[in-house]
Amino acid sequence: MGEATDKLKAAANKAAGAVKEGIGNATDNDKLVAEGKAQKAKGTAQDVAGSVKGALGDKV
């Protein structure tokens, strides 16, 4: 996967995580809040991976 693909997946995971976290907070669902936070963290990791690939020319 290239830099752009990783960044797109990162954005999708961050957005989905934020939605889950928001719904979890609104409904007092701690499990959903935790899932949202985990998904946002996954998105952040994907974003970093995309940045590294961009810096190294997608060779990683």
Describe the structure using short key phrases.
60 residues; mainly alpha; elongated
Write a structural description.
- The mean pLDDT is 91.
- The protein starts with a helix and ends in a 5-residue tail after the last helix.
- It has helices at 3-26, 30-55.
- It has 60 residues and is mainly alpha-helical.
Would you identify the regions where 5 or more consecutive residues have pLDDT less than 50? none
Q: Structural class, from helix and strand content?
A: mainly alpha
Q: Tell me, what's the shape?
A: elongated
Query: Mind summarizing the main beta sheet?
Result: none
For the termini, the CA-CA separation is 9 Å
Q: Indicate the mean pLDDT.
A: 91
From the alpha-carbon coordinates, what is the Rg to the nearest angstrom?
A: 14 Å
Could you spell the SSE succession in H and E letters? HH
Number of strands: 0
Strand proportion, as a percent range, falls in under 5%
